[in-house]
Amino acid sequence: RAGISQKDIPAHCLPTLLEIAKTKWKDLILKNQSLDIDIIRLICYTGTLKGGGNTMDGTALSIMLIKEIHNAEEKILNNVLKTQDVTISQAKVLSILLSQPEKQASLKHIEKEIQLAQSVTAGIIIRLEQKNYIESFGDSSDKRIKIVRITSLGEQKFQASQQVLAELENKALSALSESESQQLKALLIKVRNTLLTSD
Length: 199
Fold this sequence. Notes:
Layout: H1 14-30, H2 37-50, H3 59-81, H4 88-98, E1 104-106, H5 107-114, H6 118-130, E2 134-138, E3 146-150, H7 152-172, H8 178-196
Antiparallel strand pairs: 1-3, 2-3
Helix pairs in contact: 1-2, 2-3, 3-7, 4-7
């Protein structure tokens, strides 16, 4: 919590507290849930106490920084995308559909790709359909399977959102050289793949 100080935590509790914080942090990442920034700050704080003023090993700090960057980018992106009448989640669905050979996919496939609960994904699909960005229909061979296809308007909105993403990325990486930008992307991909393949 904000305002936590060393006197608030008995010295004998620090090892246990640190392990609990570490466990929750790992579980949150592996389950692809929202990372509790307070937990990460707690990890950093308890690590500092145990290390006599030194940070743990840079790992917790790195995760905290990634989370804070994510929060800032998401807030800016959602605000900017409002001008295109599309959200980040909706843009992800449009991207999935455009990546398919016939620009269509089953609802089950979209759920798997977007990694959200069925009810949440269904809500996104309903809103996209209301905006005429997609259309849905039953599979010709099995009406129980719902197929979703992007419309021409949906394609236009996705392209506009991609332009916004490109501009935001350029702004975020403006302080880096081209080689630094490429190195950062490669490292982030490596971190992401490690987390997604962890047990």
